[in-house]
Write a structure and sequence with these properties.
heterodimer; A: 107 residues; mainly beta; seven-stranded mixed β-sheet; four-stranded antiparallel β-sheet; B: 116 residues
Chain lengths: 107, 116
């Protein structure tokens, strides 16, 4: 099974800050890496798929990069509505696993 | 508009069974793999089970192997999760999600509580 190690587990930043979250896979997953945003009481929302592709309708301040085992998710300028928990997810032929999540708060 | 609507959650005693359903609409259900993902209270997301479009391939997380069975009825645009031998640690919100290499559609979730 592929394990995903996501860091940090929590993050406090100011509005306008650049925020970065990392995710490391236990083996090469090519670019099969997705990023989701989840707000309390809501289902996850896809933001980035295939490591770097922006889902339709998602603001361009969100971006992703990486391939192989190391991936990065970035919010270029943090907005109040970005307060949420963010998860990375890998895909390997109908087998999936998630990172532990990063809870993002406003400082 | 794509919609996924889960149902069937509720309170069940340890060792009991429950069957979740997910009604899909707004897309060609029979051409997509489908997933169940759960989230225990205050915890992260956990992939549970996946099924290919024609039910040929089925995969389960180790935590539910031998107890949970995923299935689908393409004629009814429905996904199911039969959960047997339920444990307290199975308490969670269960989401169905459209499959593939990423899930851009999710249901609202249904709460399963395992408690005596």
């Amino acid at each position: 099974d592929i394990q995903m190690t996501q860091s940090p587990s929590s993050l406090s930043a100011c509005v306008g800050d650049r925020v970065t979250i990392t995710c490391q896979a236990s083996q090469d997953i090519s670019n099969y890496l997705n990023w989701y945003q989840q707000k309390p009481g809501k289902a996850p929302k896809l933001l980035i798929y295939d490591a770097s592709k922006l889902e339709t309708g998602v603001p361009s301040r969100f971006s992703g990069s990486g391939s192989g085992t190391d991936f990065t998710f970035t919010i270029s300028s943090l907005q109040p509505e970005d307060i949420a928990t963010y998860y990375c997810q890998q895909y390997d032929n109908l087998l999936y696993s998630f990172g532990q999540g990063t809870k993002l708060e406003i400082k | 508009e794509v919609q996924l609507v889960e149902s069937g959650g509720g309170l069940v005693k340890p060792g009991g069974s429950l069957r979740l359903s997910c009604a899909a609409s707004g897309f060609t259900f029979s051409t997509y793999s489908m997933n169940w993902v759960r989230q225990a209270p205050g915890k992260g997301l956990e992939w549970v089970s996946s099924i290919s479009s024609s039910s040929t391939y089925i995969y389960n997380a180790d935590s539910v192997k031998g107890r949970f069975t995923i299935s689908r009825d393409n004629a009814k645009n429905s996904l199911y999760l039969q959960m047997n031998s339920l444990r307290a640690e199975d308490t969670a919100v269960y989401y169905c999600a459209r499959g593939g290499s990423y899930s851009n559609y999710w249901g609202q979730g249904t709460l399963v509580t395992v408690s005596s």
